[in-house]
Structures are given as structure tokens and as C-alpha cells.
Amino acid sequence: MIPEMMPIATVPHWNTHGVLPPIAPGELGNSLFRSPYAVGLPEVVDCLSISTERIAILDGFLRFRSELHRVGLVSGFQWLNGSFLENIEDLEDRQPNDLDVVTFYAMPTGQSQQSLFAGKTYLFDNTQLRQDYKIDGYFRELGANISSDNITMITYWYSMWSHRRNGLWKGFLQVDLDSANDEEARNRLDAKKEIFQ
User: Which residues pair with 79 in a beta bridge?
Assistant: First the structure.
């Protein structure tokens, strides 16, 4: 059995290629201290709210999480990726457009997928998520049967998210779905907004 990743104190710095390192600096290639890095939500805000565009994306992400919590999705974790986690400003001379998010969630007690989705399609429609929250979002239920579809999608995200389109290896992040640190993350983001106004 493979042990769970231990959370790290902060988001790793971009390497000389402008991406998060796929394996923690100084670790051997077979180390478990690798991407996806389990980090705290406030640390994501601290490290990546470095422009007004990024602050707007993080604001959308925190609002998205608030809606997930409101409908009972409070247990699980999220993988974060995309150009938002790269130094895209230097790599491609542009700002990130959104944040790629896969939400791995435990089904709330007494709910089914049908009851969870009923009347809340805006939370599970990728076009709506991009428009309302600046999120490119996907979902996978934890504790569901290990189907070929689940394996296919998880390995798809891991393999695609571990590389840039040019084949360069890179890392990505994991945050807990629990709301315990969301208020602190929101306060830190609001403080960053003040700086960039």
C-alpha cells in the first residue's frame, strides 16, 4: 500500500522552466514527495495572487468552493492545474484565463448523484463554470466502484497535467475540499486585492 502524501508548508517555486517541479527539489526520482503537492488553500492564495487577473480567478475559485460546500460537498480534495500554475506571463506573454480543477468528492449522506445534481446543473456544467467562476471544472466521486471509466479519467488528468503541451514535465497542486481554511484564504485574497487596487 502506498502511503498518503504529507502536506507541504507552501507551494513550490516555479523552476527555471516556469513550472512547478514534478518532484520536490532535492528528492530522488522515486520519491513520494512529488506532484500533486498537498498544500493549504491559504498558501495557494499567498503564492499565486500576483496580478489582478490571478486574483479574479482565485476569487472565482473560492466562490465555486463556497457553492460546493453549500450543496454538501465538503469531504474530498481538489487537483489544481493549468496555465494558472505556470509562470505563463513569462512563458507565453499572457495572463492565465482560468483555473483547471478536478473535484474528488465524497457523496453527502442521504444523497445520490441524481439528487445532488437536481437543480444545481450550473455547478456541473463546464461552460457555466467558466463563465461564473473562471473554472475549468471536472468531478469524480470518491468511494465509487473502480470502473474503467474512473481509471481512464484519473490517469488522463494525471498524465496530461504532468506535462506542458511541449512535453515538459511539471507539477500541480492538491487542496482539501473541507471548508476549514476557506475563510482565511478569503481574508488573504481580500488583502491582496487591496494591494493591487
Answer: 102, 174
